[in-house]
Amino acid sequence: MFTRIGRFFKAIFNAVLGEAEAQMPVSMLEQSVREMLDNLRVLREATATTIAFETKGKRDLDAQNARVKNLDAQAEEALRQGNEKLARRALQLQVEAKATRERSEQVYKAAKLRADNARTKLKVEQERVEGKIRQLGELKAINAMNQAQRKMQEITDEYNIDGAVSVFDKTAGSIQEQADKITAMDTIAVSEGDELDRQLSAISKKSEVDSALEALKARLGEAPATGSATPAKAKEKISSAFDDK
Questions:
Q1: Burial of 79 (0-12, 13-18, 19+ CB in 10 A)
Q2: Which fold, 2-159?
Q3: Which residue of 18, 145, 205, 243 has the smallest Cβ count within 10 Å?
């Protein structure tokens, strides 16, 4: 029973931990990169120490090679001078130097192998850490973009920008429609006013024409009366002239 309970809580903990790791914030990634850099620094120090042993082994091997060569030259010179005892002593020391050189060579080869392995491992780890640093930079950029989008969405939700934009567009459309109607009414009013002005002008002109016609009629009515009187008087004069005779 306790095993089942433990397994149950362990499953819940792993599920929560997995979800948290899936949503790992950038700060945790940065902390991971810092830990990688710390480990890489320790690895560099260890590699440097291994390379130092390689350098020391190479120096000891070179020294032993030089000693063997020098003893060989001394044995040859002693033998040339006829000092066989001294030549034998030089050769004895050379044998011991060769044995020491073999041990130095083995130490150097082992140190070189460890140093080469350390260099390879360091290079691999450096490439891995550099890749993680580049990935962190990309994730930080993506995270900043996501945060900006979330912030914009929060502002949109809080201030209802979309709704305000819809109301603005609707109100602006209504105002534009009213403005179009007013413009149309003004156009109609101006057209009607022009028509009335034309009618009034026509009436005024008609009155002027009527007045002119009446004046003309009056003039024409007076002219015949004067003309008819003149012949009558002439007739009377003619008649009087005949009567006097």
A1: middle
A2: Helix Hairpins (1.10.287)
A3: 243
